[in-house]
Design a protein that fits this description.
about 45% helix, 4 helices, about 170 residues, elongated, alpha+beta
Length: about 170
């Protein structure tokens, strides 16, 4: 009788030490429900952060353009690369070191920046520019397109690349 009591105690201890299949399935189901709620919110937060970065990068480029224009007296920069630089040595009109090297490549934070210098004067110095910031992967890295030019007003469009005719951001 003592051995039977001992084996029952051993069985109960073994059973109490683990989880049943139903308990594990319930935990997995709860985790899946939480993930189904959290992942879309995380993606929306990432898109919002990328869009905020795109607007800030447009502002950075327009500020760099003003500095370039006044420092070098050669109009606006001929390219985003000219606003960038090597980070070492003396800045020049071809490597002004006014924006970071990543932004100077035209792609940052899920957005592609397309820069076009316009309206050269009689010396060949550009007196205007257009800058578009478009999501690299629409609905994944961003949903809003941005545009700015010499007056530094940033315009947006949620359906197609933005132009000067689109509403300004507030």
């Amino acid at each position: 009788m003592r051995s039977q009591h001992k084996s029952n105690s051993l069985r109960q201890a073994t059973r109490a030490a683990g989880f049943s299949l139903i308990e594990l399935l319930i935990v997995v189901a709860i985790i899946l429900i939480i993930a189904a709620i959290a992942i879309p919110n995380l993606l929306r937060a990432r898109i919002a952060a990328n869009q905020s970065d795109a607007v800030q990068n447009c502002r950075t480029i327009t500020s760099a353009q003003v500095i370039y224009y006044t420092t070098y007296a050669q109009g606006f920069a001929p390219s985003l690369g000219a606003l960038g630089g090597t980070g070492s040595g003396t800045p020049t009109p071809t490597a002004a070191d006014l924006i970071d090297s990543v932004l100077a490549t035209g792609a940052k934070s899920g957005y592609t920046f397309t820069y076009v210098a316009l309206d050269p004067d009689s010396n060949g110095y550009d007196q205007d520019y257009n800058l578009n910031a478009d999501p690299t992967l629409l609905n994944v890295s961003g949903v809003t397109h941005y545009f700015t030019d010499e007056p530094s007003v940033i315009h947006f469009n949620e359906k197609s690349p933005a132009t000067v005719n689109d509403p300004p951001i507030q």
